[in-house]
Write a structure and sequence with these properties.
Elements (H helix, E strand, L loop, with lengths): L12 H6 L3 H6 L7 H20 L16 H22 L6 E9 L8 E10 L2 E7 L13 H14 L7 E8 L4 E8 H21 L20 H8 L14 H30 L21 H10 L12 H8 L1 H8 L25 H8 L1
Length: 375
């Protein structure tokens, strides 16, 4: 992606806005795109092709060149292209000639030194600017509300169009089909520019100089130095003051303090173990630790050869098993799956999970609620 090498990129803004000095620290380390990131890049390539094709442009289909293409990606990108065209059609009911731009380079360096990125889709209609961003990821649910990446894109779009159009409000939408998530946030141009001048610009200037305070939190997720960051270690080791006593010996406020950090603690511990293992594989000797061969399971050298041998001996080497819902959906396609099996699929109540009050999911109804109502 074009913003891949920007030190203060829009995509990493959530991290460096919370922890300014992390920007230059991460810039010192090489980029190592994960398989998920490469999959996302392929999906964006297909999104661009489908939207431009729907707009009437003649382009070569990139599908054969995509490493991670599958039926799910085809359907997700179809849904995205349909969503964009629906949004464009809706815009045309209030504006005769809206401007639409796909994969547009956006420069927001007026507020962020060297800041630029790429907007998946922009629609400009008189006084309203719409910014749409496709997310192929399945792991993290992305919310558009006060999303700094989207707000940076909006600033870059304003930089292009504000002198031409009398833009008064900006609508930002995250389209995340694999999570069935369409999140939209609207704010006025004045509020966006106020945030840019009072929050974004001064923090970006700190980050560009490597100044500011280190801060740990959920923004550490994609930080390159998350395993060795001292601030993150201090943040997580604060739990040590509880000496990991049995919960029955802790006060309620102490349990609440542990709950607030326990997920991050588990994540941090896993990052430390992964880092130490990779260093050991590179030759690092850790005092008191050694590399050993982990447990492994037997496997066939050749499944085809095994099947042939067993069949020759007069046995059936195969078991018949119904495809899972995800695999069945991929085989049939989403629409065909719904036509054939929608009344044969149920979604049982999920396992109870304790989450912060800020989580947008509704609270579960419990037996205790019934008891209180009866009282």
């Amino acid at each position: 992606m074009p913003d891949k090498h920007a030190v203060l990129s829009a995509s990493s803004s959530y991290r460096w806005l919370n922890c300014p000095p992390s920007a230059l620290e991460c810039a010192k380390l090489p980029d190592t795109a994960s398989e998920f990131a490469r999959q996302g890049t392929d999906a964006h390539t297909l999104c661009e092709f489908k939207v431009k094709t729907a707009l009437g442009q003649k382009l070569e289909d990139p599908t054969k060149s995509l490493t991670y293409f599958d039926e799910e990606m085809a359907e997700c990108t179809d849904e995205y292209a349909q969503f964009v065209m629906e949004r464009l059609a809706a815009t045309k009911t209030v504006c005769k000639d809206p401007l639409i731009m796909v994969e547009q380079r956006l420069d927001f360096s007026k507020w962020v030194p060297g800041g630029f990125g790429t907007g998946d889709c922009l629609i400009v209609a008189d006084d309203t600017l719409t910014v749409i961003d496709y997310k192929h990821g399945l792991g993290v649910l992305v919310d558009a509300e006060k999303n700094p990446q989207m707000m940076c894109y909006a600033l870059g779009a304003l930089n292009l169009f504000d002198d031409i159009y009398d833009i008064k409000q900006i609508t930002m939408t995250i389209f995340q089909p694999r999570r069935e998530n369409i999140s939209t946030y609207t704010l006025s141009k004045e509020d966006l520019l106020k945030w840019a001048d009072t929050v974004l610009k001064p923090t970006a200037e700190l980050a560009a100089r490597g100044d500011g305070e280190y801060k740990a939190g959920d923004h550490c997720r994609f930080c390159k130095i998350k395993a060795t960051c001292r601030k993150r270690a201090e943040y997580n080791l604060e739990l040590a003051k509880y000496d990991f006593a049995m919960p029955s010996t802790l006060q309620d406020d102490e349990i609440e303090a542990v709950l607030a950090k326990v997920d991050e603690l588990v994540s941090w511990a896993g990052d430390i173990k992964d880092y130490a293992l990779q260093q050991a594989l590179s030759g690092k000797i850790w005092n008191g630790w050694k590399l050993v061969e982990g447990r492994s399971n037997r496997r066939y050298v050749s499944e085809e050869a095994v099947a042939a041998k067993v069949e020759d001996a007069g046995f059936d080497p195969y078991e018949k098993k119904l495809l899972g819902i995800t695999a069945m959906t991929k085989q049939l396609g989403k629409k065909r799956f719904e036509e054939l099996l929608s009344n044969l699929v149920e979604k049982p109540q999920g396992k109870p999970v304790l989450v912060p009050e800020s989580d947008k999911r509704p609270a579960m109804h419990t037996a205790a609620d019934d008891f209180n109502v009866e009282k």
